[in-house]
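Structure (tokenized):
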């Protein structure tokens, strides 16, 4: 009986031992699995951190240095919405690109191209907005000064300029261009393709006057060689279609009537040239014989001098006389167009006893001993 009890105790102890061994193995397996789970968790977290770091790095390349507050309220909303839309599109591509390990793959390059496209839009938009601000200032100033030509070829440029000046931006294109709709003119147009109006050819009349001035002082008749030279010089001056259109439309040469000439006529250049050349021929020798009086008492020939310049010429003659020579320092007379009177100046220097002619637009500067020489050399400036 005691033996059997002993055997039972041993068996029970063996079962406990077996159970304890099995319990320890299960616990070890649990801890091993738990540790692996923590490692996987950390690995995923590190991977997410790396992904977010790559995304942040890519997003840092999306530059937005546009000051929205400097625009009109109606333009602010349009610009802000466009930037927001482009930033969201860029962020989407950046998130996709950050998950692609192979940076040389076509899939990665596709996302890079998308991001570059959005960055280029921002660069173009910034440039166009800055240039629009500068354009408005320049356009307003030139309109106030009467700088632009009234020629028909300027109609679209003037109309579109007015639209951009007075109305808010209509829309922003996918390449960052600023768009408007000219309902009264040519429909939709973009700022990048806009061509500024061309100005009045104020210097062309002066250049033609210089040619005529030399002919006025020539006492001998013109020969064929000289006539051919005049023809060529006049024709070259008329080679710019915009300058030609301005000369015809803006009355830069008041003594000539171009009202029957259409600037867009293919023969317009030849018609203007023939009219000018004939008039220059007729001036030959008209400035050779002149009657000089006694300075201050001289009276300009009002039938020749432009009526509006009669008093000016009288004042200039007084300066050139002995009485006027006592004047200290230079005296300046402006003969430029109303939009820029100071572009052409004739200055009397009492100390040097000489006149200086200056045409700023053409870079022409020349000295003369007498007022008569100035007037003869630039008949278009002084004479009808």
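Design, position by position:
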């Amino acid at each position: 009986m005691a033996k059997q009890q002993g055997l039972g105790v041993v068996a029970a102890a063996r079962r406990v031992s077996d159970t304890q061994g099995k319990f320890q193995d299960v616990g070890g397996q649990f801890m091993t699995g738990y540790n692996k789970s923590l490692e996987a968790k950390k690995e995923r977290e590190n991977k997410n951190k790396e992904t977010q770091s790559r995304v942040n790095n890519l997003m840092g390349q999306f530059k937005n240095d546009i000051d929205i507050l400097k625009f009109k309220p109606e333009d602010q909303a349009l610009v802000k919405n466009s930037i927001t839309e482009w930033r969201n599109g860029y962020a989407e591509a950046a998130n996709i690109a950050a998950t692609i390990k192979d940076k040389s793959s076509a899939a990665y390059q596709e996302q890079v191209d998308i991001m570059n496209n959005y960055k280029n839009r921002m660069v173009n938009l910034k440039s166009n907005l800055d240039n629009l601000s500068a354009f408005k200032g320049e356009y307003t100033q030139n309109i106030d000064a009467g700088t632009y030509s009234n020629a028909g070829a300027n109609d679209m440029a003037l109309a579109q300029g007015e639209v951009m000046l007075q109305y808010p931006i209509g829309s922003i294109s996918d390449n960052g261009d600023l768009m408007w709709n000219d309902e009264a003119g040519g429909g939709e147009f973009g700022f990048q393709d806009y061509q500024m109006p061309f100005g009045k050819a104020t210097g062309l009349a002066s250049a033609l006057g210089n040619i005529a001035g030399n002919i006025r002082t020539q006492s001998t008749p013109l020969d064929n060689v000289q006539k051919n030279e005049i023809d060529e010089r006049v024709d070259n001056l008329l080679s710019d279609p915009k300058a030609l259109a301005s000369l015809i439309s803006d009355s830069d040469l008041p003594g000539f009537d171009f009202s029957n000439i259409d600037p867009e006529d293919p023969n317009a250049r030849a018609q203007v040239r023939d009219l000018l050349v004939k008039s220059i021929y007729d001036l030959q020798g008209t400035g050779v014989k002149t009657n000089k009086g006694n300075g201050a008492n001289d009276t300009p020939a009002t039938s020749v001098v432009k009526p509006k310049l009669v008093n000016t010429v009288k004042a200039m003659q007084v300066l050139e006389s002995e009485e006027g020579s006592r004047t200290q320092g230079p005296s300046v007379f402006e003969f430029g167009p109303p939009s820029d009177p100071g572009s052409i100046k004739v200055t009397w220097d009492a100390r040097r006893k000489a006149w200086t002619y200056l045409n700023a637009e053409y870079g022409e500067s020349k000295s003369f001993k007498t007022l008569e020489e100035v007037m003869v050399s630039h008949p278009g400036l002084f004479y009808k």
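Reviewer-requested clarification: The chain is about 55% helix and 10% strand. Confidence is low (pLDDT under 50) at residues 289-303.
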